[in-house]
Amino acid sequence: MKLKLPPVLVFVIFSILMYVLSIVLPFGDFDFFGRQFLAFFLVGSGAIVGLVSLIQFYVVKTSVDPRTPSKVSSMVTKGLYKYSRNPMYLALLMVLLAWGLWLGNAFNTLLAAGFVGYMNRFQIIPEEEELAATYGKEFRHYCTQVRRWF
After folding, report:
1. How far is Cα 18 from Cα 13, in angstroms, rounded to an integer?
2. Contact, 95 vs 38, CB < 8 A?
3. Left (φ > 0), alpha (ψ -120 to 50) or beta: where does 61 sit?
4. What is the DSSP string of the chain?
5. How far is CA 75 from CA 20, 24, 143, 147, 148, in A?
6. Beta partners for residue 29, in sequence order
7. What residues contact residue 48 under an 8 Å CB cut-off, 6+ apart?
8. CA–CA separation, 27 vs 33, rounded Å?
9. What is the pLDDT of residues 17-42, one digit of tens each?
10. 102-143, pLDDT tens digit by residue?
11. pTM for the full predicted model
12. HSE of 92, CA atoms in CB hemisphere, 13 A
């Protein structure tokens, strides 16, 4: 597989980059009524989505290690996975967006978009290639029914 970094490490790197950007960039600051509430809402929602996603993997006793999709013992297509093929990554994105809101710099949305691009290219696409090789038509049909992120 092409992936070199664990997704949680990628999340941490992008979080640090967002923090550095908010300090270094002399413009792009913003504030609006409810910004902190929205940040807390996104963190809470992201935590719930991430936890439920993990629980769904544990219930069917399949691997949650995204670096080794070959160890997956079954496809999870129910619950949150009926709406998103990658709710764990969606949860990380929600927390990154909350972090960007908390930091209050509009340019952090570009870094959040960079996170999505990185995850698509270096994590999700290689993962989906392996899953398609393992589950064939069943996985390809699932991909036509469920969006990648949301």
Report:
1. 9
2. no
3. left
4. ----S-HHHHHHHHHHHHHHHHHH-SS-B---TTHHHHHHHHHHHHHHHHHHHHHHHHHTT----TT-GGG--S---SGGGGT-S-HHHHHHHHHHHHHHHHHTBTTHHHHHHHHHHHHIIIIIHHHHHHHHHHHTHHHHHHHHHS-S--
5. 39, 44, 12, 15, 15
6. 105
7. none
8. 20
9. 999 999 999 889 999 999 999 999 99
10. 999 999 999 999 999 999 999 999 989 989 999 999 999 999
11. 0.93
12. 23
Structure tokens at 49: 């989505």
Q: What digits encode the pLDDT tens for the residues 66-86?
A: 777 667 888 999 999 999 999
- Reference 5, options 134, 149, 122; nearest CA is 122
Residue pair 88/53 in contact by the 8 Å Cβ criterion? yes
**What is the spatial distance between Cα 19 and Cα 44, in angstroms, rounded to a whole number?**
20
Query: Per-residue confidence at 2, pLDDT binned at 50, 70, 90?
Result: low
Q: What is the CA radius of gyration of the chain?
A: 17
**Residues shown for the chain:** 150
CA distance 99 to 84: 22
Q: Which of 116, 110, 119, 114 is nearest to 22 (CA)?
A: 110
